[in-house]
User: What shape does this take?
Amino acid sequence: MRVGKLLVLYCVTGLIVWSCDKQPAETPKPLETTAPVEASEPVATTGPPETLEPVKTPETQEKPREPASKVATEIMMDPNKTVTLQFLGHASFKISHRDVNIYIDPRNLEESPHDATVVLVSHSHRDHCSLPDIAKVSSIRTKLITTDEVVKEAQKGQVIKPGETYERPGFKIVGVPAYNLDKEFHPQDKLWLGFIIEMGGRRIYYAGDTDVIDEMKSLGRIDVALLPVGGTYTMDAVEAAQAAEIIKPRLAVPYHFGDIVGSLEDAVQFSQNAECMVRVMERKEKIFLEAF
Assistant: This one.
């Protein structure tokens, strides 16, 4: 009996071992690896759909936009895209666009740029007509446009009268009247001048030495009006504001102050009385008319 029990136990044990050996072996899973991602393909991310953002490659990366103010400044500072106005003191200005430089009544200049395309001289008074300063800005190609008195004195130039025009590629100049009504300094019969300068899409009116006159009513569209404010020989600040109301420019710039006649207070008073925008400029200051 004992031998029989042992035999049965041996057989059962062997059967169990044999059954275990016949269980199919579990196939080992391969190690998970991450395939290399090429830089030119977007990398997928996980997470809630609302947080998914495509990864931008160098080809699709958006460039930051320039601030509007910077773009506008670049346009204004590009001489090919705007007209510049520079105040040279008393009644002198320089107007530029591209390769055209127009000087008006140059006087007491510290430099000799010799870059003038045209020099405009309104009349023969010494605070407006300075032959040494005309020479400082002139080259052999410069054209002097002025009254017959100045042409005779300078022994060169072209005479223009009120109502007449001088035009070249890139600009146009129209002579307009400038005279006193109740003063004897600038008689109407002298045919002394103011100017309308058309260039770069702008119409700029230089009044000359004048009072408020009826001809101001027929100037047409004026973008910038350069007006004397010193009184004594011309309009004073209050009268200049009246002239601006007639002309209705987008911008008015006073002159005839701070030298010989007129003061900064006159210019400030004009700015306070005028209905339009006013810029009181310092000597040598330059502004870009695209800004106005």
In short: The longest strand covers residues 171-177. Residues 1-76 have pLDDT under 50 and may be disordered. Residues 74-281 form a domain with the Metallo-beta-lactamase; Chain A fold (CATH 3.60.15.10). The CA atoms of residues 239 and 245 lie 10 Å apart.
